Amino acid sequence: MGRGKVELKRIENKINRQVTFAKRRNGLLKKAYELSVLCDAEVGLIIFSSSGKLYEFCSSSSMSKTIERYQRCSYEAYKMNQSSSDRQQSMYQEYLELKARVEMLQKSQRYFLGEDLGQLGTKDLEQLECQLDTSLKQIRSTKTRYQLDQLSDLQQKERTLLEVNKSLNSKLEQYNAALHSSWQSGEHSIPNRFQPPQIGQFFEPLQCNDTLQIGYNYVASDNSAASTQGANGILPGWMHSL
């Protein structure tokens, strides 16, 4: 059978207590030394006996440096824990403030929409009316400024289009003037030998006989004969036999 669990309690016998303390102390100091050598750890061990006698072991050159390092690490850990706690508290406080602000804004929105006005007094209603008037003035001012900006843009576009139209009209007038000048110079350059002939120089006017009738023999007068003779001077010879 194995050994049972030994209850740890204070040794009442003083001699036995001192012997046990010496044995355990030496074993603890040995373990601290081995730990510092084998694991390259910085070990600081402080032991006070029941009589107040000090026993210590330090792997570094000075116990005070080890204690200072311990205090620094402990303070930083405490500071981090405290900072985390403070940060959580600050975030919770900020959450409460934001929640209250949201509720207030929702209530103001209902008032602006004309809801839940029965619970407001005369002073609150007057204040709400002033806020609505101020908001309405700001809206109208913003609308007017926006319309003026649009009007200014349209006027600028109008001026640009007028300038473009003026430039196009000027170019069109220059083109028409150049075309008219080229036509005039072309008419003056045509020689006289290319002028179209007058029809009256080649053809004699036809003489109409008002007395010409079927079965009527017309006797030409002297003037007619002279005219015929004058015409025969122009007609070819083969037409004289007709």
TrEMBL record:
One of its GO terms (cellular component) is nucleus. Transmembrane segments: none annotated. Residues 88-178 form the K-box domain. Keywords: DNA-binding, Nucleus, Transcription, Transcription regulation. It is found in: Nucleus. GO terms for molecular function: DNA-binding transcription factor activity; protein dimerization activity; RNA polymerase II transcription regulatory region sequence-specific DNA binding. One of its GO terms (biological process) is positive regulation of transcription by RNA polymerase II. InterPro entries: MADS-box/MEF2_TF, MEF2-like_N, TF_Kbox, TF_MADSbox, TF_MADSbox_sf. Residues 1-61 form the MADS-box domain. This is MADS-box CMB1-like.
